[in-house]
Amino acid sequence: MKQVSQVSLAAAISKVKTGDTLLIGGFGMTGNPVHLLHALAETKVKDLIYVANNVGEAGIGGGRLLRNGQIKKAIGSFFTSNPEAVKAAQTGAIDFELIPQGTLAEALRAGGAGIGGFYTPTAAGTVIAKNSETKEINGQIQVFVPAIRGNVALIRAYKADTAGNLVYRMTENNFNKAMATAADLVIVEVEYIVEVGELAPEAIHTPGCYVDYLVQATNTLEDLGSSASVKASSKKADEGRMSMAKRALAELHRGDVVNLGVGIPTLVADLITSEHGIILHSENGMLGVGPEPKEGGAMDYPVNAGKVPVTALPGSSYFDSADSFAMIRGGHIDVAIMGGLEVDEAANLANWAVPGKPLLGVGGAMDLAAGAKKLIITMTHTNSDGSSKIVPNCTLPLTAEKAVDMIITDLAVFSFEAGQLYLIEIMKGSSLEEVRAKTTARFLERLDV
Q1: For position 230, what pLDDT does the model report?
Q2: What is the C-alpha separation between 352 and 100, in angstroms, rounded?
Q3: Domain 5-218 and domain 237-445 have a common topology
Q4: Domain boundaries along the sequence of the chain
Q5: Residue 429 has pLDDT above 70, yes or no
Q6: Do residues 156 and 186 make contact, with C-beta atoms less than 8 angstroms apart?
Q7: C-alpha–C-alpha distance, residues 56 and 77, integer Å
Q8: Is 283 one of the catalytic residues?
Q9: In the 8-state DSSP scheme, what is residue 359?
Q10: For residues 117 and 367, what is the distance between their CA atoms, to the nearest angstrom?
Q11: Contact at 8 Å (CB) between 285 and 318?
């Protein structure tokens, strides 16, 4: 059995050269190679191509690399959580490429598997794919995505043995597993390094043949930021938002596998009990998401896609981001509930580009909108200026074409059937006259009165 070298931070980071393409593991505040990134920020290496789910995540080192001017180009699905990353992209200080979260995960997996690229329905018809090759496959327009490989992968694991076999903790699997396969040189910071034979073979997530160097890491809760603790997510919802969440819950059935987006959809999770028999999916790699714990943080519990510590229900499972989005694209998610900025008469959805804001955060919305069997949009009926969000044609950048099945607002419930938009329910406190006055899209009425 080979032995993988255990080296110091300085020795590990000396392997990174100017101009390298770096693959940086982690999702939100979990599974990030914080020690390696901070050490890299102390070097004079520059002109880096930085590939990560969240570019320049504040508090984990990417922000320091940006401030130092060490990053030449960034590729990721989120830039918006760090104002420094947004500013750098807007001002041209760095080149950037925005890529949907699931597409990023699959591009890394393809790179690690020696595959040149793949076709996906995600992002078809959107500005993200405007310069991409497309092809109609089985009657569906799909976008070609080249594989991604790196010179060096910096990742984090919970345990490793001296042969380089890795075990990830709960949702810290995320992008680490795919990135470990897709780089010429793989450096891993690890909390516990044990002798060969101490890890059960069936428990190993990444075989040692992928790993080149191990670095001893410590428990780094202090580096993770405020979203690592339970108390950071506490927020009371108003009556209108809770009404939408309750109505969305009524669309779910026992045994459904359901993904909940951020914002109003997150409130649905607070209403689900064990009696409902609903299985919650989180795109960062968890099935069987339970309620928030009463205390604790990201080192004690799995973390959902909203960076909130959660509990794991009996029968739950963890997996990496590539497998998670394969579930989504493969049609294994029964219902996705997400927020919206606009939905139009053709069931097109726009929900990732906020008016007046930079187009720097797409996340997993495009993958979910294209892959879930049923897509429910929860949103306020109008914008703050009173303009309708249910419109004849979307004017904002699209998330997905012809994807929406149902719209739930604070005023009404709409359903798309055979390409036609129907008003099917008036919410308590509203009226048909108000819905008509505040909806610019054409719709038919099918109300039970």
Answers
A1: 54
A2: 11
A3: yes
A4: 5-218, 237-445
A5: yes
A6: no
A7: 11
A8: yes
A9: S
A10: 17
A11: yes
Which H helix or E strand runs over 51?
strand 48-51
pLDDT of residue 292: 85
Counts of helices then strands in the chain (DSSP H, E): 11, 25
Q: What pLDDT does 226 receive?
A: 40
Identify the bridge partners of residue 65 per DSSP, sorted by sequence position: none
Q: Can you tell me the distance from the alpha carbon of 382 to that of 439, in angstroms, rounded to the nearest whole number?
A: 8
- How crowded is the C-beta side of 337, counted as CA atoms within 13 Å? 27
CA distance linking residue 34 with residue 18, whole number of Å: 20
Rounded Cα gap, residues 190 and 211, in angstroms = 12
The whole-number average pLDDT for the span 437-442 is 98
Contact 152, 20 (CB under 8 A): yes
Residue 222 has pLDDT above 90, yes or no: no
- Kindly report the pTM of this predicted structure: 0.92
Q: Which of 189, 283, 292, 342 is catalytic?
A: 283
Look up residue 382 and give its amino acid: T
pLDDT higher than threshold 90 for residue 82? no
Q: Which CATH architecture describes the domain 5-218?
A: 3-Layer(aba) Sandwich (3.40)
Handedness of CA 303, 306, 307, 310 (dihedral sign): negative
DSSP per-residue codes, 198-238:
SS-GGG-SB-GGG--EEEE----GGGS-GGGBGGGG--PPP
Q: Which CATH number fits domain 237-445: 3.40.1080.10, 3.40.50.1100, 3.40.640.10, 2.70.98.10?
A: 3.40.1080.10
pLDDT of 58: 47
In the chain, the N- to C-terminal Cα span, in Å, equals: 73
| Residue 124 pLDDT level (bands cut at 50, 70, 90) | very high
Which run of H or of E encompasses 344?
strand 342-344
pLDDT tens digit sequence for 299-338? 789 988 888 888 999 999 999 999 999 999 999 999 999 9
Angle ∠(275,278,282) on CA atoms, nearest 5? 140
Helix or strand holding residue 49 (H, E): strand 48-51
Confidence grade of residue 60 (pLDDT, cut at 50, 70, 90): low
pLDDT given for residue 432 in this prediction: 96
